[in-house]
Design brief:
This protein is an alpha+beta fold. Helix content is 18%, strand content 37%. It has two domains: 2-114 and 259-277, 3-Layer(aba) Sandwich (Rossmann fold), CATH 3.40.50; 116-254, Tumour Suppressor Smad4 (Sandwich), CATH 2.60.200. It is built from five helices and 18 strands. It has a six-stranded antiparallel β-sheet. A hairpin with a 2-residue loop joins strand 15 and strand 16 (239-241).
């Protein structure tokens, strides 16, 4: 058996936890592989061949990095909280070994989390068009640039035009991402069992623009009005797409594989919602 560790290298506490976990796993006869520090080696791929479990040690941002490593392969993932929020994580430093032991024994609940398959189009300085694909567990975000100019764009779902909007941007989110940028922009909190997309306009210059949900088979299309010369940027799970190029549009659909997130029970999501968003720390 192989286990991949994905620590937050900016947190010594997380690295120490990963070292302790690595020593215990090797003592149990498990082969351990470490993901590299992305800041030092941003373009280096992570080998997941033969990996049976991925363990992230950090906050939700570290877990999202682990998800980008796994993508659509459906290798089970376990998040251990060494960060500020830990909404998606299952345990922490105090129960580090026990949580991983339970995961290896198959005693944790498996939560299937829908993913996104994103295809964004960008214009080069010479006028040619380039397409970039990206994976996302949380969301695709269309935003304006540093000048803050309003963006004008059209939103369509499966060929049906919804509206032409003007504002700061738009978020296309999974249920998992509904508690992130989409929530901050006024969207709803959505149960992980929902397998459609959550579409949320960001600061649009109209009172009629509202968030809406799609079905699992729908395709969301964003087409940016080329007549406005505002900057327009795309981000997949907070990672920039088409850096240095002008965004033209994006197509978003359900990904071909889910993220399998391990947690204590089917109630874990609602317990986290209560703890993080309603301040309820009672058990």
């Amino acid at each position: 058996m192989k286990v991949l560790l994905v620590p937050n290298y900016a947190r010594p506490h997380a690295i120490g936890g990963a070292q302790r976990l690595s020593a215990w796993l090797e003592g149990e006869g498990v082969e351990v592989r470490w993901a590299h520090d992305k800041k030092l080696f941003p373009d280096k791929p992570v080998d997941t061949s033969g990996v049976s479990l991925v363990v992230s040690l950090g906050g939700d941002g570290t877990l999202l990095r682990a998800a980008r490593i796994v993508e659509y392969s459906e290798i089970p993932m376990l998040g251990l909280s060494y960060g500020h929020l830990g909404f998606l994580t299952c345990g922490g430093p105090d129960d580090l070994i026990q949580t991983v032991s339970d995961a290896l024994a198959g005693e944790l609940h498996m939560s299937h989390r829908m993913t996104l398959d994103i295809e964004a189009r960008f214009e080069r300085p010479d006028g040619s068009v380039v397409t970039e694909r990206a994976f996302a567990l949380n969301d695709l975000a269309l935003t304006h640039g540093i000048r803050g100019d309003m963006i004008a764009f059209d939103v369509s779902v499966s060929g049906h035009h919804i509206d032409r909007l003007r504002g700061d941007g738009f978020v296309v989110s999974t249920a998992t991402g509904s508690t992130g940028y989409a929530l901050a922009a006024g969207g709803p909190i959505v149960t992980p069992e929902f397998v459609g997309m959550v579409c949320v306009p960001v600061a649009c210059h109209t009172i009629t623009a509202r968030a809406f949900l799609t079905s699992s088979s729908d395709v969301v299309e964003l087409h940016i009005n080329p007549e406005r010369h505002a900057d327009r940027l795309f981000f997949a799970d907070g990672q920039p797409m088409g850096e240095g190029l002008r965004g033209m549009g994006a197509t978003v659909r359900r990904g071909p594989g889910d993220i399998i997130l391990l947690d204590r029970s089917a109630r874990s999501f609602y317990e986290s919602v209560s703890r993080v968003f309603y301040g309820n720390t009672k058990r």
